[in-house]
Amino acid sequence: xxxxxxxxxxxxxxxxxxxxxxxxxxxxxxxxxxxxxxxxxxxxxxxxxxxxxxxxxxxxxxxxxxxxxxxxxxxxxxxxxxxxxxxxxxxxxxxxxxxxxxxxxxxxxxxxxxxxxxxxxxxxxxxxxxxxxxxxxxxxxxxxxxxxxxxxxxxxxxxxxxxxxxxxxxxxxxxxxxxxxxxxxxxxxxxxxxxxxxxxxxxxxxxxxxxxxxxxxxxxxxxxxxxxxxxxxxxxxxxxxxxxxxxxxxxxxxxxxxxxxxxxxxxxxxxxxxxxxxxxxxxxxxxxxxxxxxxxxxxxxxxxxxxxxxxxxxxxxxxxxxxxxxxxxxxxxxxxxxxxxxxxxxxxxxxxxxxxxxxxxxxxxxxxxxxxxxxxxxxxxxxxxxxxxxxxxxxxxxxxxxxxxxxxxxxxxxxxxxxxxxxxxxxxxxxxxxxxxxxxxxxxxxxxxxxxxxxxxxxxxxxxxxxxxxxxxxxxxxxxxxxxxxxxxxxxxxxxxxxxxxxxxxx
Length: 507
Prior knowledge:
The protein is mainly alpha-helical and about 500 residues long. It contains 19 helices and 8 strands. It has a two-stranded antiparallel sheet with strand order 1-5. The protein has a two-stranded antiparallel sheet with strand order 2-3. The longest helix is centred in the last third of the chain and has 27 residues, at about 355-380.
């Protein structure tokens, strides 16, 4: 006899019921938020820019080479993982938008669409801020097989126009409802559990960040600075509202901790310590530990041993480290409350409204110190570190009262002498930590240099040799596959010579 399968059975032979190809937009959104926080905000870009901006010192392997400008800042392989992940995240977010748009399978879920649009705007800005002109309009298509295999490179100016437009669209959609039968996003929203008002505040806060980013190219700086103030006022009113990714635990690791725990490639920055010493900043006693995991109270102690920027040896378990590399469960900040306060203080300074700026700056510094203390506490209670005996805490936490007194005694006189300079230095210090904010310090540094403002003094002697990385190199996957990117990359030396457009460059 002859035996065979029916046509129905044959159609199911290669079906994998455990790997669905079509999932609800709300589920996609959860992945987009997670990927954005762990890989795109808190991952390689944050680790490398913390070295460029001297929050940390690279002391081993790739980070040592980045510290000493030996290949890593210009190699197409350096940022390839995050380059690919940014585009994968964009594609997923676009799929979510497509599903919730007219004609999509979840048409009517406008709120979910608005959330995804905010995430497209954020990830697009990360891409163009770090890499400059990028494939954008033709890239990350929300389809299984893209029509355009070699997408063109768009000008950064055009990308930013699209980003700000997306945020406006998102705010409109977030004021709607999720009317499709699949319902609202709920707990798949890992930032706000579906709270649309907080998403609208998040979008307004991003508009403040990006409006300030484009200040050099503003047609009316006074008007745009007023817009920054208004956007901040329409955004977070406290740290409880900030866009903080808090889904870290003993197994879901803060990305800075994850890097250092597995590779031990970072050491404490002498440059960073000097700025804290200069201000008698109370954070100095809290933010460093020695190789034996004992908290370092200050430069008078025997175990105070910072790594000299650009002059350090390639050696592990030798120099002090920042305490933040042990902050296993510290939040990643997609947009923090203290960043918004610093943006408002900067705008007020540039408008010469100094008394108002001083009051806002004080709130910013107090909020920033509270964020530092939250990360210190995360280090002191890190589950993986506790298994090995934990860190030894030798100093008391900084209270809000002490933070306020620090501002009145130490910061205010420096502010009175040069309001804008001290505002930007305090913002730079605030972004030192486990929250993934070093890229924003890097962006600020490049933005200020374009405006002729040299407020942040960096100590790496390689910078004097014109070896400060002005941008990140394109990812090797596109350098080798997309002729448009290959031509733009050349030999990679452009990372030392060409600013991005918003920092005064042409691409």
